[in-house]
Amino acid sequence: MNSTMLSGKTALVTGSTSGIGLGIARALAAQGANIVFNGFGDAAQIEQLHTGVAKEFGVRTAYSGADMSKPEQIEEMMRMAAAQFGGVDILVNNAGIQHVSNVEDFPVEKWDAIIAINLTSAFHTTRLALPWMKQKNWGRIVNLASVHGLVGSAGKSAYVAAKHGLVGFTKVTALENAHSGVTCNAICPGWVLTPLVQKQVDDRAARDGIPMEAAKKALLAEKQPSGEFVTPEELGALAVFFCSPAADQVRGVAWNMDGGWAAQ
After folding, report:
1. Where is the secretion signal located (predicted)?
2. Of residues 76, 89, 185, the one with CA closest to residue 130
3. Active site residues
4. Does CATH number 1.10.3720.10 belong to domain 10-191+231-263?
C-alpha cells in the first residue's frame, strides 16, 4: 500500500483527539486522506493537533467539537464536512465512554449517555454519510466496537450492550449495501492503553496499593493472553486495510484485535 492510496478521499473520525481515534486518523492521513477530527479537549491543543497532522502528511484537516450524544450537533458536523470536503468517503465511528457498575447500581443517566455516544451516534453519522457514499459508489464505514462487542464482562452492562449493538448495526449496514461499493466493518480491540483504560489501571493501582506497571500487568493477565496492549498504530493499520482494494469483499465482519482475549 503506497502513501497515496486514499488521496482525494476524506475521512471523518469521531473521538479522534486522543487514543485509538487519533491513531486511526494518523494512519489514514499517512495514506493521503483528508481528516475531519472530532472530540473534546483544550482548543489550542486540538488546533495544534489537526494543523500538525495536515502539515506532516500534506493533507487537509478540519475539526468539529460536536457532542456525539446530540443528534443536531452530529448533523451540523456532517454538514460542515460536506461543505469543506464535498462529503465523507470514510467514516470511522470511534467515540466512546465507559462506566463500571453492577446493573442494579448503574446510574440511569450513565446508561443513557453510554448508549447515546457508543451506539446511537454511529446510526446518525452513518445515515448521514451513506447518501454521498452511494452516489459515488465507494465508501468505507469502520465501527470501533470492542472485544466487548463479542463477549461480556461484569460491571460493564451499558458498554457491552452498546458494543454488541454496534456489531449488529455493522452487519445490517453491510448487508443493505452489499451490492454497492460501500462496505461496513467493525474492529473489536482488546485492551488498548487509552485514557479510558489508563483510568482503570490507576484505579486498580490505588485500590490494591501496587505500582502502575504491576497494575497494567494484572489487568492484562485477567483477559489478554498476549500480556501486551494493542496499540492505536496497529488498529490504524487494520482500518487502512479495510479501506484498501484488498478488502472490497470484507463486509460485515467483527474483526477482533485482542491478543487472544476472545479465543479463550
Report:
1. none
2. 89
3. 159
4. no
